[in-house]
Design goal:
By secondary structure, this protein is mainly alpha-helical. Helix content is 82%, strand content 0%. Its main location: membrane.
Length: 202
């Protein structure tokens, strides 16, 4: 049982970076085309929509990894406890915030997928610039998306730090400190891309 849980947690960590993290960055970059106007965003969105084997790619590279990561993540939230003897005050806060942002991110992703994918599949909406423009025209939804994006980017960047530690890439205090600054830069960069896109839609 211990070996199985160790394997699942390692897989959980890996999927959070590859492929989920890569997809997150790609998704934010596509959304960032909104900065250059509706036509630029629509071209980028339609290019992604028309990729060969898109459904297969989405199922096996996006949806199944996200479902596994989310289910195990919720389990970890309920069983995990901050370990003050192992981690310092700052890392314990990061550990705690990782769990909180995991739940917020899950709620945000479910809602975002419903609005931008499920309803489109039902034929009630079309995936284009005007769809996001209409969604974000509501101030409540705009700030919901801001919180969702920041939560998601923090969860990814902080999870990247944990990935580097758990996979033995950063094992010394110095390397972990460097990784802290590096993942902070990642957080700031991807958050900027995501938030700037939101403002572009409004």
């Amino acid at each position: 049982m211990e070996n199985r849980e160790f394997f699942y947690r390692r897989l959980h960590s890996l999927l959070g970076v590859v492929p989920i993290g890569i997809f997150l960055i790609q998704h934010l970059v596509v959304n960032h085309f909104a900065v250059y106007g509706p036509e630029s965003f629509n071209k980028a969105a339609h290019f992604m929509h028309d990729l060969p084997f898109r459904i297969v790619l989405e199922i096996f590279i996006i949806f199944l990894p996200i479902i596994f990561h989310a289910v195990l993540g919720v389990y970890i939230v309920f069983v995990a406890k901050n370990n003050v003897s192992r981690y310092g005050f700052f890392r314990n806060w990061m550990f705690y915030l990782q769990r909180i942002t995991g739940i917020i991110t899950l709620v945000f992703i479910v809602w975002h997928v419903w609005e931008t994918r499920v309803q489109i599949g039902m034929g009630t909406k079309e995936l284009d610039y005007s769809l996001m423009e209409n969604i974000l025209a509501n101030p409540v939804m705009f700030w919901f998306y801001v919180i969702g994006v920041v939560s998601t980017t923090f969860h990814f960047a902080n999870g990247l730090w944990s990935f580097l530690v758990s996979w033995g890439i950063t094992v010394t205090p110095r390397s972990q400190k460097i990784a802290t600054y590096a993942t902070l830069l990642v957080f700031l960069a991807v958050t900027y891309i995501g938030i700037r896109a939101l403002f572009a839609f409004v």
